[in-house]
Amino acid sequence: MMKRILVMAAAAMSLCACVEKNPLLKEWDTPFGIPPFEEIRTEDYVPAIKKAIEAHDAEIAAIVSSKEEPTFENTILAYDKSGELLERVYAVFGNVESMAFNDEVAEASNVITPMMSAHSNDIQLNEALFERIKSVYDRKDALGLDDAQLRLVDNVYKSFARNGAALPADKKAELKEVNSAISNLQLKFSQNLIKETAAWTLEIKDKADLAGLGEDFIADAAARAEAAGQSGRWIVGLDNPSVMPFLQSSANRELRIKVLDAYLNRCNNNNAEDNKDICAEIIRLKLRKAQLLGYETYVDYQLEDRMAKNSENVYKLLAQVWKPSLAAARNELKDIKAMAAKDGITTVQAADWRYYSSLAKAEKYNMDEEALKPYFRYENVREGIFYVANKLFGLSFERLENVPLPHPEAEAFECKDVDGSSLGVIFMDMFARPGEKSNGAWCGGYRDQKYDKDGNKINPIVTICGNFSRPVGDKPSLLTPDETETFFHEFGHALASFMIDVKYPGISYFDHDFVELPSQLNEHWAFAPEVLNVYAKHYETGAVIPMELVDKYLESKNYGKGFAMTELLAAMYLDMGLYSMSEIPDNYNVLSAESKILKDIDLLAEIPPRYRTPYFLHIFSHGYDVGYYSYLWAQVLDNDAFKAFEETGDIFNQELARKYRYEVLKRGDETDAMELYKNFRGHEPTVDALLEYNGLK
Ligand SMILES: [Zn+2]
């Protein structure tokens, strides 16, 4: 997942001459301009963000009150550079929300979220500002602008138009209310989910109920119980590092059913944390928003400026992959049924899938993934990740001591280019902190790359977060192959942040459908034999992972792809379906809508979608609404792009890596993403490599 820093643009911050006490507002004379994390207290955020909003308002007012004719410099550029202080402060808070969440942070969010949303509304609906922007936009071809400047003018103009700047006053007012209602509901949605995920646990008292579970899992479950004051017992949680291995390995069917049921029904328990009505209201409000802006559905509105362009293209892509995936899942189901029958199970349920699939896989390939984990010590995987970045792009990473850290558990590294010059800083904060940290893994940041007013490049400060199992006692953190890929994935996002190099904040990002390309592409190197040789060393003996184990793993890796693709695509169809209505009935029930969408695609009853509506965080809070498909879109791109490396006969082909860096990553949103891709690949991507690599051909 990729979380973007608030893209709002940037200017010289107006620092007051008085002695500033709030550490967020002070000038940060820390190494690399890293936020002074140790000094910041939760109560600093609200006043700092208030002040930063005022500073941004003043910058906007200065643009609007100019008596000069609107120009690229005094309007577009000035707008693009405004809000730097706010961006800086809000980035710190945004990261705290997802990795150091607690009740005080929740309280601050409740104040800050509506404030931010109102502020962004005020700007987006500022008529005088829009008039000036439109004036430049209407004359853009006569102003002698270069391509990047023209692109910036387009982006700025469209961001206003798409947010209602051209609407009459009454509709503008309504849109403002709709936006702020959506933003409040999104916040409530994600807070409910964090609470519900932490609230439910399975407490195991009887050792017999641990049957099938791996040693590490049991140690982690014991540590969780210990922390909860239940020493001598074992606790299973609903966070992914706990729930997924449990479902895969627990031999106790009753408990599997219980745990999966709790997992699938998060925020669907008719209590204070229930999200069903919140989802329905969010969907209704987004439709209203789309219609106010002149679109028939929210899907139409969302896709208009994406690489995919329209829903037809999205559904076409989904269908090309759905059929072979479902067929593969049906095949897997045969194995699962045969396996379950040995235990006397005649009707296979969802809670049986992962367990029997893993047994069937083990029987077929005689492959125990637990046997791989000792070779994937966290620190070793990190070395492998650095190795790949070095082989491809010549980058190196140096550990930074004595710099402020966003969390005591985080580590900091400086990224250096081939010539030794700095490309920025990355924090890694990769271990689970249930209740405090959001689920999953993501890449975020404290600062995007940019240029100061003298044309000097300012490097990014990136952060990647994960939920890996932490070291227990003297046992290091050992990653599963999946987690290893996740680590490569998030780091791929970070690489993109280090390599993007454009002049204006308003074009300094990647197209929504493109964002997952650099991350997913980076995963392809994780299990290449040459790379494994470097990093996959047994944490006790130091022996390199035996290649026959790797071969077996790679052979077995695609087993279960039918299920994995099916649950993923089902969630994509769910996202598209929920937002594609042009009318929403009064007693709208999101779960009935969900059932219908899943029935229409013939999803197997034994496979729940990867996310169900009440906890589909991506599409109700994290900006992937009508965007979850982009993971598949990007899979088409990443597989096709890796194929390009393979076709040269050298997965470390540096010439191609250079092309990828300079033709694609460096350029951000300077031009249409498909054009950038074609410059690198020579042609548009096809689904062939995706189906081939996943064994779905
Ligand atoms: Zn990602």
Structural write-up:
This protein has helices at residues 45-64, 72-81, 84-99, 103-124, 127-138, 147-161, 169-199, 215-227, 240-249, 253-264, 276-292, 298-303, 311-341, 350-365, 378-393, 481-499, 517-523, 529-535, 547-557, 561-578, 590-600, 617-620, 630-647, 654-664, 673-681, 688-693, and strands at 201-204, 234-237, 396-399, 411-416, 422-431, 442-447, 450-451, 457-458, 461-468. The protein contains 26 helices and nine strands. The radius of gyration is 25 Å and the shape is globular. Helix 24 packs antiparallel against helix 25 (673-681). The model is unreliable at 4-15 (pLDDT under 50). It has 697 residues and is α+β, with helices and mostly antiparallel strands. The two termini are 27 Å apart. The protein is 53% helix and 7% strand. The strands form three sheets. Strands 3-4-5-9-6 form a five-stranded mixed sheet. Among the domains are: 31-124 and 126-162, Endopeptidase. Chain P, domain 1 (Glutathione S-transferase Yfyf (Class Pi), Chain A, domain 2), CATH 1.20.1050.40; 200-264, no CATH class. The structure holds zinc ion. Zinc ion (ZN) binds next to helix 16.
- In the CATH hierarchy, what is the superfamily of the domain at 31-124 and 126-162? Endopeptidase. Chain P, domain 1
Radius of gyration: 25 Å
Q: Strand order within the widest sheet?
A: 3-4-5-9-6
What is the CATH fold-level name of the domain at 31-124 and 126-162?
Glutathione S-transferase Yfyf (Class Pi), Chain A, domain 2
Largest sheet: 5 strands, mixed
Oligomer: single chain
| Beta-strand residue percentage | 5-15%
